[in-house]
Every structure is written in C-alpha cells, then in structure tokens.
C-alpha cells in the first residue's frame, strides 16, 4: 500500500480507537482559556497543555498507541526507536510500563540529561552517529539484526492516530474552535489533527507551524527542493526528513503550513512563562509564535494552540529570558569612558544609582582600547524599568559629562 493509500485509510475511527487505548495511560491534558493572550492578540485563545504529560510531551500518545497495537509476538521481540528527545522518552516509558524491552538509538551529540532520562525510563540506549540521520540508519540496521519492531516517530499510521487524539480532546472540550495551530516537525501531529478536524461537526481550520530555518514541510508542499539547517531553540521541530505518510494526509486535507522567525519562538517562550506561568520548549511555543506573528488573521476567532512540550534545557531557557529583557529594553549594555583613577568607578556608580539604574555586571577594559593611557572603558550591564528609562539613563550620563554608547542595540538589530 502506498503512503497516499495508507493516509486515506486513517480516519476518525482510528483516532477514537487510539483514545480508548490511551485512556488511563496518558494524561488527558487541560484545554485552558487564556484571558491575557486573548486580549493581546484579539483572538479567543485556548491552550492545550501537552507539556503536562509525564514525559512533558505529546509524543507519549503516538508511542503508546503504537506499542499497544503490537501483536504478542512483536511485543516479545521488543521495540526500537530513533530519537534525540521526546519520542525516545515516550517509547521508553510506555514500553517499560507494558513489560516490553525497548532500545533507543540517539546521536552522540544528544545532551547527557536526555540520555540519562531515557535510561532511567528503562530503555537500552545506544549512542550512534554524529547526526540524527546516521542514528536512524543504525537503528534500522539494528532492528533488522535483532528482529526488533521499529517505532517511527511520525511516519506510522498508529503513531499518527495517537497524536491525533490531542485534537479530538480539544474539539470535545471546546467544540466551537475555529482553528487549531500546531507545531510541525516530521508531520505526525499535524496529520492527526487534520484527520480529527475533518469529521468535526463544524469547519475547523488546521494550520501547521515550522521555524523558518527548518521549513521542510512548506518546501515539500510547494514542490521545492528541501534546504534546512542552522541553530534553533525549536529543536523538536528541526526536522529535515518529513514523513511521506503525513505529507500525503496534509495534501489530502489541504492543510496550510506557515513559518515563524526564531526571535518569535523566543518571544513566545517568554510570553508563556510570564503570562501563563508555564514552561515550554521552543517547539512547544511555535503555535503561539505563529499567532503573535500574524494576529490580524485570527482576530475574533476561537483559536486552539497546542503547547506540544516542555522539555527545554535550563541554560537555554535562561538565555532566552535574558535576551527578552534586552529586547524589551529592561537590560542595557553600555560602554562608558572614565578616568583611570581611584574613585572614578564609584562616582559612575553613584550617577547610575541617582538615575535609578541597577548595575548587573561591570567590566574594565584598559588594554584593548584606543583611549589615552590615563582613561579606561567600563562595560556595564544595567537593569532599567523599560526602554524609555534606559534612554533616560544614557541621557543622564551624558548630562553629567560621561561619554556612553549602547551595545545592546547591536544585538537587537541582528535579531
């Protein structure tokens, strides 16, 4: 059977059967209304909090549904999966719960914390290959050598049906939704959502969201060669090889996929934390990023956003939050020229204190400077109330005869 034929063979009945299998095995996550995000965007915003699953990702659904459909012989053989993150943990967790041996192949570059978590969930972990594609090739070969059942992260009917239960729950909890925005990596989740929406009593638009640097599905749907790559905090959707089966389903249902800028992903992560007090990974914030990137399209509509996961590295989260402070003008980076004499730095600190600025970091630069030898540059990171207050601090320094220039604007212009 071709991928297109397989895609047409998956229907709402398969999603409902998956929902019955998953009952009591995965969390029926809440669909919550966000009053503040609704006010900001002009849409009626509902959040499907899949970051509240045990492994903090919707990936549990597809993995569990696939494993639960195995025959007795397949279960005895054991399962194998290739993943650098959420799918790995979903397969490991549910295989362990069902007493099925699980092997997970991860690239050698996988962060240790993800390797450790997967092992703790009971899986045998193999670190193979420098990139995901190499790990996938090894996993396929190991599956053949050891007669293991391969659990694909997205190009599998049972996995797609499991992921589609996210949208089934959303439409049961809020039947009046006009639109569902969902992150897109390999395509399993958006394909499942498309199937769920197709048989709903009213018309529901499903829109997939990719980060600009990994717009593989957009390129496939447009018939263009796939060219992706680069650093992104949305590593959960940083996928080059899209599933043929999900693509067939997207084409069948005419699903649109849009792209969002990296900086909007960062902004969405911050908004979720500051407004909703919810931690999301980069991929999990993609749907909100799309809404904020084009709010006019959704004004007055009831929009469901799938918050697909919450597994974000703590250092990455810290960097995102600090960069957000820079963008909001709440952190400014100044280079100030002062005399290289005792008390000069103290005088500068007093001026900044009078201007109600809070010095976060300070660093002298005496050697690598074109200034006179009796002068020094001081680089200051200063906390301000907002952009206007930051500008007032700079103006106040200049009024006191202190030469200062801003470096944070360079960061902002690059973004």
From TrEMBL:
Enzyme class (EC, first level): lyase
Q: Quickly give the catalysed reaction.
A: L-serine = pyruvate + NH4(+)
Q: Which controlled-vocabulary keywords does the entry list?
A: Lyase, Pyridoxal phosphate
Decide whether keyword Lyase is in the record. yes
The molecular function terms in GO held by this entry are:
L-serine ammonia-lyase activity; threonine deaminase activity
PROSITE patterns (alphabetical): ACT
At the top level, the lineage of the source is Bacteria
| Stretches assigned to the ACT domain | 333-409
- Give the family from UniProt: Belongs to the serine/threonine dehydratase family.
This protein's name: L-threonine ammonia-lyase
Organism per entry:
Nitrobacter winogradskyi (strain ATCC 25391 / DSM 10237 / CIP 104748 / NCIMB 11846 / Nb-255)
């Amino acid at each position: 059977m071709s991928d297109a034929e397989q895609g047409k063979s998956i229907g709402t009945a398969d999603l409902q059967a998956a929902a019955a299998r998953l009952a009591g095995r995965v969390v029926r996550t809440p669909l919550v209304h966000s009053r503040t995000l609704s006010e900001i965007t002009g849409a009626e915003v509902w959040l499907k909090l899949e970051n509240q699953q045990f492994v903090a990702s919707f990936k549990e659904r597809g993995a569990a549904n696939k494993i639960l459909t195995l025959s007795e012989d397949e279960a005895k053989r054991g399962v194998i999966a290739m993943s650098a993150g959420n799918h790995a943990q979903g397969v490991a967790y549910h295989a362990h719960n069902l007493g099925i041996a699980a092997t997970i192949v991860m690239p050698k570059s996988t962060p240790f914390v993800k390797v450790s978590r997967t092992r703790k969930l009971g899986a045998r972990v193999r670190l193979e290959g420098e990139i995901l594609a190499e790990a996938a090739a090894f996993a396929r070969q190991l599956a053949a050598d050891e007669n293991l059942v391969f659990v694909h992260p997205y190009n599998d009917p049972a996995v797609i049906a499991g992921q589609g239960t996210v949208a089934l729950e959303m439409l049961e909890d809020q039947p009046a939704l006009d639109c569902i925005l969902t992150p897109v990596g390999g395509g399993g989740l958006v394909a499942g959502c498309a199937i769920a929406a197709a048989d709903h009593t009213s018309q529901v638009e499903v829109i997939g969201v990719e980060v600009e640097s990994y717009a593989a599905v957009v390129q496939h749907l447009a018939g263009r060669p796939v060219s992706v790559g680069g650093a992104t905090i949305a590593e959960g959707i940083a996928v080059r090889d899209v599933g043929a089966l999900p693509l067939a389903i997207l084409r069948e249902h005419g699903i649109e996929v849009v792209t969002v800028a990296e900086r909007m992903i960062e902004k969405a992560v911050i908004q979720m934390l500051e407004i909703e007090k919810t931690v999301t990974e980069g991929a999990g914030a993609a749907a909100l990023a799309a809404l904020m990137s084009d709010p006019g399209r959704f004004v007055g509509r009831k929009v469901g956003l799938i918050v697909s996961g919450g597994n974000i590295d703590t250092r990455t989260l810290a960097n995102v939050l600090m960069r957000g402070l820079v963008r909001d003008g709440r952190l400014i980076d100044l280079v100030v020229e002062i005399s290289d004499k005792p008390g000069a730095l103290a005088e500068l600190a007093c001026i900044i204190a009078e201007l109600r600025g809070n010095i976060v970091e300070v660093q002298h630069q005496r050697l690598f400077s074109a200034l006179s030898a009796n002068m020094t540059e001081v680089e200051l990171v200063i906390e301000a109330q907002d952009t206007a207050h930051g500008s007032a601090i700079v103006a106040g320094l200049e009024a006191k005869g202190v030469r200062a220039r801003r470096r944070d604007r360079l960061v902002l212009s690059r973004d």
